[in-house]
Specification:
Number of helices: 6
Radius of gyration: 17 Å
CATH class: Mainly Alpha
Largest sheet: 3 strands, antiparallel
CATH architecture: Orthogonal Bundle
Number of domains: 1
Length: 195
């Protein structure tokens, strides 16, 4: 096995580089979601969310796309660094969400993030080693439903955009399936075992 430095294999270097990239992208989804919900959409209500179409006749707050991506990226952080770092990423993400959310959305954002990512973790962890792609998809769908319900209720006391939230976040999970299949096959080919 080739080594980059004493005691560090190419697999270790690859795992570290990819894990850090996934962690950085995961962290960036949080401020992006909070910014989008207040600034970008086809329609922005005063003192309300900016919304965008996620399917014909179906709208959702614009941050939903980043939340769907966050659920997938946290799974990838865990795949590269293990469950302990996955839990740390959840806690760090919830803190970031609370710090960066608009004042009216702090509690909703941080709470929804913490609960939904924990739900995602609970589904992903037992499935990931043998069924990686299924684990990402199932945990993502479970996490996105939890996130949608908690966030909408705490932020707006309404489930008006629930269907749109679920569809918007689901787009990111569905779009992640081909890259997850590629990653699984590439990891198997390289002998890069999930942590």
């Amino acid at each position: 096995m080739e080594r980059d430095a004493p005691g560090i294999t190419r697999h270790d270097s690859l795992r570290l580089a990819e894990g850090l990239a996934f962690l950085l992208l995961f962290c960036l989804t949080i401020p992006a979601a909070n910014w989008l919900i207040g600034h970008a959409g086809t329609e922005c209500a005063p003192k309300g969310p900016c919304i965008l179409p996620v399917a014909p006749g179906l709208f959702a707050p614009s941050g939903v796309l980043m939340v769907g991506a966050a659920l997938v990226l946290r799974d990838l952080v865990q795949r590269r660094f293990g469950a302990g770092i996955g839990i740390c990423a959840i806690l760090m993400g919830a803190a970031l969400s609370g710090l960066l959310a608009p004042p009216a959305l702090v509690i909703a954002s941080a709470t929804a993030f913490l609960i939904s990512e924990t739900a995602d973790f609970a589904v992903y962890t037992p499935l990931a080693r043998k069924h990686f792609v299924a684990a990402v998809v199932l945990s993502g769908f479970f996490g996105l439903v939890v996130d949608s319900m908690v966030f909408l209720w705490l932020a707006f006391c309404s489930f008006e955009f629930l269907a749109g939230q679920i569809v918007g976040k689901a787009w990111m999970i569905v779009l992640a399936i081909p890259p997850m299949m590629w990653l699984r096959k590439r990891d198997e080919r390289l002998g890069l075992v999930a942590v």
